[in-house]
Amino acid sequence: MMGSKDEEMMEDDPGEASQSKPSEKTGPAKTYLPKDLENDEDLVPDMSAYEMLHTFRCRCSCLSFDILKDRLGQRTGYPVTLYAVAGTQAERGKKNSLVVMKVSNLQKEKQDKDEDKYDDDSSEDSDSSDDEKEDRETKEVIKTSELYHNGAVNRVRVCCCLLSLSQCLRLFRSYQLPLFQICPHVTDTKVFVASWSEKGKVHIWNIAPQLAALETEESSKDIPKVKPVYTFGGHVEEGYALDWSDTRQGYLLTGDCTRHIHLWTPRESDWLVSQNTFSSHSSSVEDIQWSPTEEHVFASCSTDKTIRIWDDRAQSHKANMLTVPDAHDADVNVINWNRMEPFICSGGDDGVIKIWDLRQLKTPAALFKHHSGPITSVEWHPSDSGVFGASGEDNQISLWDLGVESSEPLVIDDQQVPPQLLFIHQGQKEIKELHWHPYVSGVIMSTSLDSFNIFRTISV
């Protein structure tokens, strides 16, 4: 963690950690900056820098996920409950699936636990049963319900749409539950999920039955084959770009590796997918974002190094209204649109994060070079317009605050550090995505090749 507060990561000698008491530490703690570790070194998190940190794994890697917008309201207390859906990238020969999950009993870290255990060494045995009980009470509870998915999931995104009364009643009859208990976190909604398959198809699923099952069953190892609500096979190749509109319910954009973007328009029972594609990019479309305020406007980024702004009311060949050429020195991997200010955040293969002011797109409003590998995900804080998070192939998640106006870099171990860098989170390998929870203040969920992390820092 960077800044004036305690450090996030510490280097400890594993051979001495079990022998040293906290009172025997020599010298002040130092801010840790990421570096290549020696063979006998391990990263150990400084838990005083976290309010909450939980790690868990699914049966195989999930390299894309999305957090559901639940109906539990804005909340800051503990324990935390959240709902998410992830897509697997299983090893060859194994089944891929969409994993609908409920993660509950996420507790706040007890900062004094390590110090307390040294107060009386003789009480260790008598306290062991109490510690085991406490561990059971503080352990996160993970329940999952899966759907078979044909091919690995490149990306997955969630959209909530209202259910009719007849649809609610059908769910009621299926699960024999009081109506208010059907998906209690979404109460009166049908939950659509869009998934990009490595097979080149985009599927839309209704996961409301799976969410209902999470409230009534233990996690099941069965992976049933359920027919998607709708499948589109009109893309020439597979892709990754995918985004639902927040201003027009049910509208979807999908972009593929051959530069084509399709607009999906909802109809009564399915979607009308445009055949006239938005094709101004010269190579793969890596990410798409609808404007959070203008319902016909969206942004895209590409391996052609550009960021483009579009208006879907125009004819497809004229819809590209603004272009930022050479937005990065390499592929532009990800973009995210600020929901409160006219800013777009972008991250590229060059390891650089840039902030773009839509009122003046010629040059970036801010540029941050911290990560040593390509940027894999960027996302603005849902309620603080100056804060965002980013992840990179250097196994780091960085948190930033544009509200820090100082232009003078911090110098730590002879390295210059941007003063806007709030926090560095590590511990995962090949981090692919991060998302802030929309209603649980400051909570971030991330996925990587080896695990999911859910955490809240003392910085945000």
List the helices and strands and how they pair.
Blueprint lengths: L8 E4 L1 H4 L24 E4 L4 E7 L5 E6 L12 E9 L7 E11 L6 H4 L7 H15 L2 E9 L3 E10 L2 H11 L13 E9 L4 E5 L1 H7 L15 E3 L6 E6 L7 E5 L4 E6 L4 E3 L11 E6 L6 E6 L4 E5 L8 E5 L7 E6 L5 E6 L3 E6 L8 E4 L5 E6 L6 E6 L3 E6 L8 E3 L2 E3 L3 E5 L5 E6 L7 E5 L3 E6 L3
Distance between the termini: 11 Å
Low-pLDDT segments, ≥5 res: 1-26, 113-123, 175-188
What percentage of amino acids are in beta strands?
A: 35-45%
**Shape field:** globular
User: How large, in whole angstroms, is the Cα Rg?
Assistant: 23 Å
Largest sheet: 4 strands, antiparallel
Strand order of the largest sheet: 3-32-31-30
Give the number of DSSP strands: 32
Describe the protein:
- It is a single chain.
- This protein is mainly beta.
- Helices cover 9% and strands 41% of the residues.
- The protein is built from 5 helices and 32 strands.
- A hairpin with a 6-residue loop joins strand 16 and strand 17.
- The N and C termini lie close together (11 Å).
